[in-house]
Each structure stands twice: as C-alpha cells, then as structure tokens.
Amino acid sequence: MGLKKKHLKADRHVRGQNKKIYLKECDMNRICTSFLLVVLLASLSLLNVSCSTYPNAAEVGGARGAAAGAIAGQAIGRNTKSTLIGAGVGAVGGAVLNDSRARRRGY
Question: What confidence tens digit (pLDDT) does each residue in 10-62 have?
Fold first, then answer.
C-alpha cells in the first residue's frame, strides 16, 4: 500500500512538470517565431540596400535614428514594445532630419 501512494505522488509531480514544460515550449515557440520574423525582415531590408552603391542621406539618417531610438525606447520603457516604437520613430525622424539637412547643404 505504501508503494502505491508513493507512485501516485510521483505521478502528480510529473503531471505538474509536464504542464510547466508545455508552457515553456509555448514561450520558446513564440520567441523563435519572433526571432525568425526579425531576421527575415532584416534580410529583406539588406536585399534592397545591396542594389545601391552608396547610401543617400535619408538612409544614413534613418539607420542612425533607428539605433538611437531603440536605445532610448529600451531605456525609457524597459520592454520590447517600447524598443520597437523608439526604433520606428527614430528611423523616421532621423531620415527626415538628415534628408532636409542634406538638401540645405546642396547634396
């Protein structure tokens, strides 16, 4: 009888672990899918850039603004959503500012 109770306790413990493992697998699937999406988008953007010989002022400003915006978004919001919003706003702002500055200089 004592052996049977021990087996039931172990069975309950294993069931609880399976539930935790299942949740971890779902999180890993979400992380891997997000990572794959980011890599795909980055490779598509690099595919477009590879056709031009030199980047124009808007592209350089957009890249610099995206980097600065991502850093600022992470520092302020401390989560991925804030980082992505900061990168988007920084990219647009950097592209517009650097393009207008280059036009004023006559490039």
Answer: 444 555 555 555 556 667 778 888 888 888 888 777 766 656 667 788 999 99
Nearest-angstrom CA–CA distance, 81 and 90: 14
This prediction's pTM: 0.52
- The identity of residue 70, as a single letter, is A
> What ranges in the chain are assigned the alpha helix state H?
2-49, 57-77, 80-105
The residue ranges of every structural domain in the chain are: 1-51, 53-107
Sign of the Cα torsion 104, 99, 64, 80 reads positive
Residue 5: what residue type?
K
Rounded CA gap, 39 and 14, in Å?
37
| Contact (Cβ atoms closer than 8 angstroms) between residue 96 and residue 87 | no
